[in-house]
Amino acid sequence: MFETVTIILLLSMLITLLRFLKGPTLSDRVLAFDVLSIMGVSLLILLALHFEQSYYLDIALVFGLIGFLGSTLFGRYIEKGL
Amino acid sequence: MEILAYFFILIGVLSFLISAIGLLRMPELYTRMHIGTKATTMGTFFVVLGAIVLQPSWSAELILLTIFIFMTNPLSSSVIARAAHTDGARLEVDDLDKDIR
């Protein structure tokens, strides 16, 4: 059951990575990065459930924070430059 | 109980899959943004719900994570939409209504 769920999640991360590589503009890539970071948070939650170690959740929290900061920073960069 | 938890997680992960397919197939940036942010919020909600059912002792941390994602995900998508509009992305005109008339 865990394997099925993880394989579906990794498949969707792979498809999002395709959009990340293909994306015509920078904004598409930033959007794909945002979606990838949220999927990464869910992948970390699934890993925490599988290994029954709660410190993966701390990593998930920090990862969500960094992903949000990254997409906000890139949005500001697109809008105003460095 | 485990079956219920994995049912919730399966709903969330299928929502992620729909989001990824839509991200690949949608024609322009704003429609991609529409599917890329709402479906992932729902997917995170259901994955966290399944995790809470499976491990109730972690529920404080998981609820904190969910509140955080629910607050930051619309904010970051709004920032990306604003930046893309400044960058010059515009809505494509839908050709479907011309065919109907």
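qc> Chain A touches chain B through 47 residues (CB under 8 Å).
qc> done
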